[in-house]
Specification:
eight-stranded mixed beta sheet, two-stranded antiparallel ribbon, elongated, alpha/beta
């Protein structure tokens, strides 16, 4: 490759970013343009204009969701005015919570459309359920138990209906749960890197490695050979004298590493130190990761369910399964992503070009197994992230509380988190029976006992959870609302963008001890 090519590749001047890019610069580094586009196309429904709900919305409005609606027929009370930052204190008292909150939240981002709806949820569930299912995602905070059951049942009727995020809080305790049928993630942003396929080098990489003539190299060039090329060459040389096998025993592996370091011509050649540190790649077989291999047995790939209406994700997954079966290496398609390594520009770009060309060839081979047309950008993203795909399947939000055996097991493995969850469930059930009376510690304990079964003893951790719920059953603290606002908004963004892996199960928050945990995952 000529020096002009290198200059072009490394000094290309891009046009100045537009206003939107400058505004969202930091988050674009997290979920890129595809994630931002998904956010800007989303429609979020918040059921309740509470302090927690507005804190959640604040963290969705700032990154730029497309639209939000607050559904709340309640008017601002004195307690609302004291704990909700998105109300104007005593000036808001007596006005609709939804209208006041929408007005102030809309000031955060003029690119987001906000709407207040002061109708009653129960009437909408009976007369206009399709309005609810038209949203991208629904978030409900401290919703009446019976209404929550109706909302949950509606959204569970059809897999195409939006996810429901159930948030409950009292005092310094809270939990939330995401109800969804199926959630697929291509860009999970896994910390696991895709394979460089050093143990199964493609022809061009192998040819480059075998062309090295260490003894004729200039010392400067010698110190800039990428470690990938060093390892491929070292492994090829090893196999010639060891029956075409990589190093197997501990002694052989140590000998292999010493052989790499012996190739140094100067003591400070960091590229050979890198190669020695990455030597494990030579005897670690490149194969389909077990998590991905497990997806190949997913029932969604059966011939009965694979039709043109199925999500493109599963058509891509079916193509991946067939590709790995038919390819010579029986591995996932190669990606062009290379890690940083000690090298000069010329050698690095040459290596990157080889990987890009091979990755393009394998991507084309992969596409030949697709049964339906799929957008090229989605194919590119799928192939790039094929080593870290995720498929999640959920349950209705109240399934856990109906399973006494699961509750008893959870009480033994995660007693504190389970007791907090059960205390919140007990509070919800008690409020459903009588909203005029503040529940006592005795009534909360009795309700928890009825949920788990009278024969099952509650652990000592139940006392703390029951005590806090009895102390502040109707209290919505600003710091709890702010903490929940950040956590729940983060999970909502994951669901909308289909990037990163959302929490599965009940996420339980204890702000007395500043801890979180997940149960029933």
């Amino acid at each position: 490759m000529s020096s002009q090519d290198i200059v072009t590749a490394t000094t290309t001047i891009e046009s100045a970013p537009d206003a939107k890019t400058r505004r969202y610069d930091r988050q674009l580094r997290l979920w890129a343009a595809t994630g931002q586009s998904a956010l800007e196309s989303s429609r979020v429904l918040l059921v309740s204009g509470s302090a927690t709900s507005t804190s959640i919305l604040k963290n969705l409005v700032l990154p730029g969701i497309g639209h939000f609606t607050i559904l709340d027929h309640a008017k601002v009370s004195h307690s609302d005015a004291g704990n909700n930052f998105f109300l104007e204190g005593s000036d808001s008292i007596g006005k609709y919570r939804a209208e006041e909150a929408v007005r102030l939240l809309s000031e955060l981002n003029d690119g987001v459309e906000g709407r207040a709806d002061t109708r009653n949820l129960e009437n909408i569930l009976e007369s206009q359920p399709e309005w609810i299912t038209s949203f991208t995602i629904i978030v409900a905070h401290n919703l009446d138990h019976a209404l929550l059951n109706k909302l949950s049942a509606l959204l569970w009727k059809d897999a195409r209906y939006p996810p429901l995020v159930v948030v409950r809080s009292a005092g310094f305790l809270a939990d939330f749960y995401i109800q969804f049928h199926e959630h697929t993630v291509i860009e999970s942003h896994s910390e696991t890197s895709p394979s460089l396929r050093i143990d199964k080098p493609f022809p061009a990489l192998r040819e480059l490695a075998l062309s090295l003539e260490y003894d004729k190299m200039d010392p400067i060039d010698h110190g800039h050979i990428p470690y990938v090329v060093i390892l491929v060459r070292a492994l090829e040389d090893w196999k010639k004298t060891h029956g075409d096998s990589p190093p197997k025993s501990y002694e052989e592996r140590q000998q292999f590493k010493k052989g790499i370091l012996a190739l140094k011509v100067k003591a400070d050649e960091e590229n050979f130190d890198e190669a020695e540190a990455q030597a494990y790649r030579c005897w670690t077989e490149t194969k389909v990761p077990s998590e991905i291999a497990a997806l190949f047995s997913d029932p969604a790939l059966s011939s009965e369910t694979m039709d043109s209406d199925r999500s493109p994700f599963f058509h891509l997954l079916a193509a991946l399964k067939e590709y790995t079966k038919q390819s010579d290496t029986h591995t996932l398609p190669l990606t062009s992503t290379l890690p940083d390594m000690k090298s000069d520009t010329l050698n690095y770009i040459q290596l990157q070009r080889l990987y890009k060309e091979r990755a393009q060839e394998e991507k084309q081979a992969f596409k030949s197994y697709l049964r339906i047309p799929v957008d090229d950008c989605m194919v590119d993203s799928f192939v790039k992230n094929a080593h870290a795909l995720v498929v999640l399947r959920g349950k209705p939000w109240d399934t856990f509380d109906e399973n006494k055996a699961a509750l008893v097991e959870s009480l033994s493995t995660m007693p504190k988190e389970t007791c907090i969850h059960l205390a919140l469930s007990a509070l919800s059930l008690l409020q459903a029976n009588d909203t005029s009376v503040s529940p006592s510690a005795e009534s909360i304990r009795a309700k928890i006992q009825s949920i788990v079964g009278q024969s099952n003893k509650l652990p000592d951790e139940a006392d703390d959870a029951i005590g806090e719920i009895a102390r502040a059953p109707f209290s919505e603290l600003p710091n709890t609302a702010a903490f929940l606002g950040g956590m729940v908004a983060q999970e909502v963004i994951k669901m909308i963008t289909k990037q990163y892996v959302p929490v599965k199960g009940y996420c339980v928050i204890d702000l007395i001890e500043t801890s979180t945990g997940t149960i029933s995952a």
